[in-house]
Amino acid sequence: MTVNTTSLCFRNKAILAPMVRVGTLPMRLLALDYGADIVYCEVERFPLRQNWFWWLKTTRLGLGLLSLKAQSHNNGILEVLGTVDFVAPNERVVFRTCEKEKDRVVFQMGTADAERALAVARLVENDVAGIDVNMGCPKEYSTKGGMGAALLSDPEKIESILTTLVKGICKPVTCKIRILPTKEETISLVKKIEHTGVAAIAVHGRKKEERPQHPVHCDLIKAISEAVSIPVIANGGSHDFIKEYSDIEAFRKATGASSVMIARAAMWNPSIFRKEGPCLLKDVMQEYIKYAVRYDNHYTNTKYCLCQMLREQLENAQGKKLHAAQSMQEICEVFEMCHFYEETTALLEGKNSLLEATDQDVDDQIEDTDVIKVAVRFDKREYPPQITPKMCLLEWCRKEKLPQPVYETIERPRDRLFCSIVTVAEQKYRSTLWEKSKKLAEQAAAIACLRTLGLPEGKWSEAANHLVNKRKRQDQELLNNGDHGNSLETEATYKKPHFPPGVPNPNIS
Q: What are the structural domains, with CATH classification, of the chain?
């Protein structure tokens, strides 16, 4: 079995564990500053259940995960922050990374489908150091979708997912599991996992029904380490073992593992990775806030992580002020960092102003008093197969003996979104909404024209659909004539590099 080769090594490493809500970019960068060798990022649940990975039981969009789009940035954020953002259909950033962590961040996903997992892995593999599959989460919102710990009872699906990923991407693949009810079952599973070609396996030394207050089973992690030749990453020692940096090595020896993955101890104080010893919590929190402001981390996430660091101090005056904070600015006020907040936000706003000026130049290119604008979008699900607004508009122009529609599409540099203007009978039409592709922008422009003229768009909901009936007749005629070639009528579209000059509005009946 050939394992994907990479510079990423999983032996003798101190690793930041994947933690939902905690392992965002600011925390990962802070852990790297304090000495973490590898940082894992968990991107399987909050806030993705409805928009990304919860497609596992959804067929409405087919491979619904592909609606996740790796955009150059979100609303100008990339050029301002220097990040790479992956944005869900609701425009929420679900994974943000940057050049500093590119060679040391592992992207963990929750999945129950091999092909969909591969599609997601291919979306992000150029911006991460590795891909991990979560097979240990015991929470219901994960297991009810067949993900997380639910996979532990389905070895065949585990093999399918991991083998598909190992063969399908160039970056190393790992997985994180919990131990099974018996030692024999656990050893049998990890050997099957090893044969898939994964680069390493992380083991949380508890059963799926056990929680942090239960002791970690170091003996079972050690048995796993002795049973396989690939690196084993021990996880689950924060409660019983790891209180400072020297404890990391003690836990590694107790488990016989190659490396140690730290979750809660790092959440409470990321300087646990610092060989010289932990830093004062006050200094750690201030450094975290700096990263949170610089990288536009949402204040609710920032607040949550700071509360985890304060722990028992949440009841003192500072903790109460933090609990009451409702913005990043108020959080900075709690920690006496108002000056830093004002300086940093002013810098970011200055960069954003430059982008907006560039956007305005683009908008000026399409601002035309002769253009009729309608706020519409094209949703493929609302139309029969092979029927689109562009086809309907083309058919109508032919029927009325008018020139074919001319589409002029422009890309906005700030966010690489598109807007298209269609000219029909010397009148221009466009949607006011920007789209993610040229094709969608052109369909939206066609809809704007059709609605303005009061013409059918070809939707399922329309009582009589001339194009659908015509297409059926054409297909039947071709079949009767023995012609098995392409029966679809090609959409004729003329592209022009520049917008035409304005022309008077004609009267169109």
A: 14-58+101-275 (3.20.20.70), 372-495 (3.30.160.20)
